[in-house]
Every structure is written in C-alpha cells, then in structure tokens.
Design a protein that fits this description.
Chain lengths: 273, 313
C-alpha cells in the first residue's frame, strides 16, 4: 500500500476532529500575534523593519516556541484514542497490518510537521506583505534554512515522543499527563545537574528538552546575533551564552526521534490489539 | 476448500505464572466454504480471543491456523482481504458520522465510495448516515458494523456476538441479513452465547468451554449424537435408576414429560429388553430430540456447576 493512501486515511480521521482544528487555529493565532505586533510597530517607527530575510528569526522563533507542543499534543489526541475506541484494532481487521497502521501514524506526523511549518510560513511571510519595510538582498539565507530545518526537527522530536507515549500508554489522558510530567521532571533534573557543574553540566545539555530549547532558539542559528547578545552580556558582567553546534543538535534530535519512533514500532508490533 | 482451519491454536495471556490466563487451549476445527458456522460458548470461554487470532490482532501463543489455505504472513494478508469481521462491540470513530466512518473503512479496505451507499442501504441506515456515530442506538451501531463488514463484499464474514444487546426485533433483522448473505454463498463464522441464535441460523457448530472445544459438527449431528429417548413407567424412580445403570447411557434427566435418556446407540429393542429384565415395563417410549440448549448445558456443565457453587456460597 502506498504511503499516500496511508496519509489519506489519517487525513480522513483528522479533518472531522474538532480538536484538530482547534489546535491548528490556536497555533495560527499564537504565531500571528507577534507578527501583527511587529507590523504595527513598524508602521509607528520607520527605523524598525519587518521584511524578508531579516525577519526569519522572528517568524521561525514564534513557531518554535509552542509549535512542538502543539504537534506533540495533537499526535497524542490523534493516536491514543484509537486504542480506547478500538478503532486501531478495527483498522487492522479491515486490512491495515499493525506495521501499516504504525506507518500511517508516522505519515500523520510528517503531515502535521509540514502543515505547521506551512502555517508558520503563511502567517509570517504573509505578514511581511503588510509591512512597509524593504528587505533584502535575497529571501532565504543559509542561516534561515538551518533554523527552518531545526524547527522541523523540534516538531519531529516532540511529535515522535507523543506517538511513542500514545502507543505505549494507549490512553490520551494518561499520555498527555506523561508528556507534561516528563517535561517537569526533566526540568528539575536538568537544573540539579547543571548546579553540579563540570562535565555533568555539559551532559544536561543533551537531555531532550534542552536539545529542544536550543534547536528553537534563534541565537543557536545566527552567530552574528549571538555575538551581539554576548557582547552586551559581557558589558553587564554576565556570562556569555553558549549553544551546542547546530549539527550536534540536529543529530541529537534525530537520535531521540529515532529512539521514540523505534520504541513505538516495537510496542505496536509486539502487543495484541 | 477450508475457509478457516485451526490446529492446536492456543493463547495464553500474560507470561506463564499465577496471573496468566489460558484463554484458548489447543483448539482445532475447520470451517468449509459456504457453511454458516456457529461458535458457541459461555462468557469468557475464549470466543473473542480465537477470532482475534484469526483476524490478526492477537498473536497466538502456539498452534497454527490458515485462512483459505494460507498460513504465511503474506498469504494471510491476501486471505484477510477476502474477509470482513467485527470483534465484540462495533468499533468506530465516535465524532464522525456513520457515513464518514464507512469512508475510513472503505479507504482502509481499498474499496470505492459507491459501495458505501449500497451497504448503508442493506442495513437500513441510509437516513441516519449523516448523524454522528456517538448518537446511534446500540442496534444502529451493530448495523453500521455489519455494513462496514460488508464493504469489501467478503467471501468470509466473521461476526462476534452480532445479536449482543439487541431486542427481539433487532435480533430478527440481523438473522435475516445473515440468511440473505448465506444464500448468496458467503461463508459465515458467528460467535454467540445464545443457543437459539446458533440453532436458528447455523448449519454447523463448535461448542467451546474454558478454551477447549467440547463438541463440533453439523448442528443436527451435535444435537442428535447417539440418540435420546423419552421414557415413562409406573415407577419413575425405579426407571431412572435402572436406565442410569444401563451401559450405553450417557446422561439421564427428568423432565415433566418423563425421563430423557441420552444413549450411545439407539437400539430400542435392547433397551426394552434390558428394562424388562430389571422388572420395569415401559408405558411410553419415543425418540427424543435434544435441543442444542440441552447439549450445550450438558457440555458446559462444569462452568454452570461452579457458578451454582459460588451462588450458594
Ligand atoms: N487482554 C487480555 N488480557 C488478559 N486476559 C484476557 C484478555 N482478553 C481476554 N482475557 C481472558 O481470556 C478469557 C477468554 O476471553 P474472551 O474474551 O476470549 O471470551 P469470550 O468467549 O469472547 O467471552 P464473552 O462471551 O464474554 O465475550 C477470559 O478468561 C478473559 O478474562
Ligand atoms: Mg467475546
């Protein structure tokens, strides 16, 4: 069966789901607010600008803020109930194998990632049309591309965590609880570790949600901006901010996602429905 | 050809230990194409588990089965495209309409949209097709499940307790649909704990109890195994005692009409000769047809006895 067919099946299930559109709408509003704010400021103050490519960090940064959680939560809402409604079982009876059911959900994740990025682009890039600023030269710089890729990876990271939790826990309420509990626990553990200092502190940077934070932070992707920020921090006697290399972040995100997706696959194949 | 054939099929839930449940225990049976096959057993006897293994949602612990002769994973995928099945309750997306639910099922089965309306028509749901599934009554849910089962025009239809929770009218409608399908040459495998259902709709039956098959064959065969006689005499006590001691007797039961004795052989002359030898002269003797219910209760007595023990504390 072709991947397109699997994606179409998932699409049929999602379009009729109210929470899907609520999440999509909320996300669009969420990223539109800073864009609207920007454009209003530009109209008031001609020294500011809102144009491509200079505004990519703003556009992508807004999406990177809550985007991953929207995708993670949506994955849980679209996958976990299939087990309580027993529709996963019925899909398998109707001819999807367990493997194909799983691949369908991975296609759903890919679809959500593309969809969310498309919304971010539409809102952000669409917003620049309402701005009087002149941008350029060019539309997309290599650094913008790297930030865009990182946005996709951070959506993938949390989305695959959502998929894994749904398949392992098989209940949307509990899976959502587990996702948030994990984030709280990791936050606490991360803080403890970083207080310890030294090598341990380094390793805390590799925890999934720290990888996520760094991937989503524009400072990790735009060295000029980071240099600027750090020189101002120096003036105020603060420590400079440091980020892992983008390549390292990307590899870490891919490794975690592969781990989550792999665990979901094993659980899906091994357990009865 | 066999539509379904199982050989020592076994399912144990949980890893072996005190908590594990042996739900299905080395069962072997075969369903020929064109049969309406009843899979009869009390609650918890392993019917759903067995069907789950056939449709591929439950991994057998041991043993094997084949569908339309195929037993390798690839062959089973192909064979499963020729069947339609529902397990336990109807399973649909509650937020979608009946029609949209069938669209999903049709997409999964790779069936075109025109079939959807045909199937809705068949089960009489056309006028409620646009309403959400969660607003359906149980009977409508069951009928939608039947429609979904029918989408791919399957050769083999597996239904798990299709009459569950329905009123007599609903049961009659389901029975009617099954009859129509059977007349079209479909093979039907139907699980039930309702004897009358199986007796009325099925040509063949397998009786399962605590994960084991205790009887299997044509309904008439299972019902009429050996033969039963209805006997009366002046002294029913003495008659019951004597017939119980007769070597060919398998079971004896008192009814309002007289003593019903199930015998391995229905050689009337020998029975009368034997009883006369015991000084008992029959006032009445007639062949007696055990109902499936009586066979069922005989065969599943173990479970009933233990229930009675629990009830009587
Ligand atoms: N997922 C499971 N985990 C553990 N035990 C299970 C599971 N599913 C079923 N069982 C057990 O397996 C046995 C057979 O259950 P099954 O559902 O197959 O029976 P059934 O004949 O369909 O019963 P019913 O008529 O009530 O539907 C029961 O003892 C049940 O408790
Ligand atoms: Mg059952």
């Amino acid at each position: 069966m072709m991947l397109g067919v699997l994606l179409r099946i998932e699409w049929l299930k999602a379009v009729k789901r109210r929470s899907f559109w609520v999440a999509v709408g909320a996300f669009a509003v969420f990223i539109a607010i800073p864009a609207v704010e920007r454009i209003r400021n530009v109209h008031k103050n001609p020294n500011l600008s809102y144009a491509l490519p200079e505004s990519w960090p703003d556009i992508l940064g807004a999406a990177a803020g809550l985007g991953p959680f929207f995708v993670g939560v949506l994955m849980i809402l679209l996958v976990a109930p299939e087990f309580t409604w027993r529709t996963a079982r019925q899909n398998v009876i109707d001819g999807l194998s367990k493997e194909r059911f799983y691949v369908g959900k991975v296609m759903l994740l890919a679809g959500l990632i593309s969809f969310f990025i498309a919304i971010a682009m539409l809102v952000g890039v669409g917003g620049t049309l309402f701005s009087p600023s002149e941008g350029g030269p060019g539309i997309l710089r290599p650094t913008d591309l790297s930030y865009l890729g990182s946005l996709a990876l951070s959506l993938l990271l949390v989305g695959s965590a959502g998929l894994m939790l749904s398949v392992l826990i098989r209940s949307s309420g509990l899976a959502l609880g587990a996702l948030f509990l994990y984030l709280i626990v990791e936050e606490a553990v991360g803080r403890l570790i970083s207080q310890a200092g030294g090598g341990l502190r380094r390793s805390a940077e590799y925890l999934p949600s720290n990888i996520l934070d760094q991937l989503g932070n524009d400072l990790a992707h735009y060295p000029e901006v980071l240099a600027d920020v750090n020189s101002r921090r120096m003036e105020r006697g603060l420590e400079p901010r440091e980020f892992l290399d983008v390549e390292v972040l990307a590899i870490a995100a891919l490794v975690y996602s592969a781990l989550f997706l792999g665990l979901a696959f094993l659980s899906m194949c091994k357990r009865d429905l | 050809m066999h539509a379904i054939q199982t050989s020592n099929l076994t399912k144990r839930y949980g890893t072996s230990g005190a908590k594990s449940v042996l739900a299905v225990d080395r069962i072997s049976f075969a369903v020929e194409e064109g049969q309406v096959f009843g899979f009869l057993g009390p609650n918890g006897s392993g019917k759903t588990t067995t069907i789950g293994m056939l449709v591929g949602t439950i991994k057998p612990t041991s043993g094997s089965f084949n569908l339309f002769g195929a037993s390798d994973p690839k062959g089973l995928m192909v064979a499963r495209a020729r069947l339609g099945a529902t397990l336990e309750t109807p399973n649909f997306y509650p937020y979608m309409s009946g029609r949209d639910n069938l669209c999903v099922a049709a997409a999964v089965k790779g069936v075109g949209r025109p079939r959807i309306d045909e199937c809705l028509e068949l089960v009489g749901l056309s006028d409620r097709a646009k309403h959400r599934f969660k607003t359906y009554s149980l009977g409508m849910k069951q009928r939608l499940a039947l429609a979904a089962t029918m989408l791919n025009d399957p050769e083999l239809i597996i239904l798990d307790e299709p009459a569950n929770g329905l009123d007599p009218q609903g049961i009659r409608e389901i029975r009617e649909v099954i009859r129509v399908l059977a007349n079209r040459g479909k093979t039907i495998f139907l699980s039930s704990h309702l004897l009358t259902e199986v007796e009325r709709t099925c040509s063949h039956v397998s009786i399962i109890r605590q994960g084991r098959i205790v009887a299997c064959g044509a309904v008439a065969e299972v019902v009429g195994e050996g033969g039963a006689m209805l006997l009366r005499a002046e002294d029913p006590e003495a008659l019951a005692g004597a017939i119980r001691a007769y070597p060919e007797t398998t079971s004896v039961r008192r009814t309002d009409e007289g003593i019903v004795a199930a015998l391995n052989a229905d050689d009337v002359a020998s029975v009368t000769r034997y009883l006369a030898g015991q000084g008992i002269y029959l006032t009445y003797l007639a062949p007696y047809r055990l109902s499936l219910e009586e066979v069922f209760i005989d065969l599943t007595q173990g479970a009933v006895d233990s229930m009675a023990e629990i009830a009587s504390g």
